[in-house]
Design brief:
Helix content: under 10%
CATH class of the largest domain: Mainly Beta
Number of domains: 2
Shape: globular
Distance between the termini: 31 Å
Radius of gyration: 21 Å
Structural class: mainly beta
Amino acid sequence: MTMWRAAAAIGGLLALAGGAADIRADDWPEFRGEGRLGEWRETGLIESFPAEGLKARWRAPIKAGFAGPSVADGRVFASDWEPTNGMRGTERALAFDEATGELLWVQEWDADYAGIQWETGPGATPTVDGDRVYVLGRTGVLSALRVDTGELLWRRNYGEDYAVDRMQWGFDWGFASAPLVDGDRLICFVGGEPDARVVAFDKMTGEEVWRALPSEEDLGVAQPIIVEAGGARQLIVWNPEEVASLNPVTGEIYWRQPYIVGGAMTVAVPVQVGAQLFFTTFYDGPMMLTLNQDRPEATVAWKGTSNSEIRTDGLHAVLATPIIDGGYIYGICSYGQLRCLNATTGERIWETQEATVERRRWASGYMVRNGDRVLINNDRGELIIARLSPEGYEEVSRTKLIAPTSPPGNRRELRFVNWVHPAYANKHIYTRNDEEIVAFSMDAADYE
């Protein structure tokens, strides 16, 4: 039995036993859910999709954006952008009633998207923490808002406050790193000067607590995460030229590992399993680090040898954060190939095109665990229930979820794509495109 299947079975037994592990609904307060782990722990969900598709609980209009929603305490949070004069326009933070889709409030600000590549809209999922939600716009406007009213509590502008000059970046993806709450701190990838690539703010006031690392290279689009290894909590900072580990409380540097990433494409979230910490990127492929278990330190266990998106020797991910289970890595490669690798050696075990359908540049999707199965949102707007094992890909069910509306920058069969990580919360899936945000029921009771 694999690690995640064993965990799912134990969780089910505990739920049946009652007590602290009672079956409960789960919110999705940040990118990839609680802890940024990409796990949906709820039970009582449908096993396969009905022929007519999932039931929409509600739909609401929204403008353009790549940023997926977050869900907490009865509210759904999202952000969007609408051009008003060329590349100048308005970014918005929005809150919807989770049960009805009623628009509760809107907070907006001006944004100039000039120079940003793939200028569809915001790219950072809102981060919810108690009575506050933190929203980062594509041009580096960070806002702390009240969850109930949308009132602006404080705001920082990366460009103005930290002298960020995006014109100096080789690849201007804008800002897409969702803020991370850690205790009293809000940790952000800013890319500022001097030595302010990473900044920790007081989450209540917006005042700077600490800053770390120089900003001589591109910022990239990585997400801050915290792992535990070597007797320490470590903030992992993935830059286009290196991986660094910091003390999240003080900003002290624990270790740095060179890892050159072409195109500043630090998109997939690093994945930790025990002493393993895995990275993968579009051009330069995979790198597996071994985390020292006695002290904060890391060494390279293995690394891909190809820097080609076509001649790929391992896993060259675009969007999809991989899953590691039972000694195997499952992820979506540069042209949509779903692959299985040996986590110890990096050897490829199998690949299939079934999940993404098209073998096209940047074809991808997002993967989330739920018990012993994986939910895959491909960029054709489909939702797939599958099981992944060293023996291969087993598709259980597939349904059309949402229309792809975003231009992909290359020729695609459906012309447009959907590059949005959905939120899975309270037996529903919440997703959006550039026209609407929708809540679909995954509750088995709704299909009896």
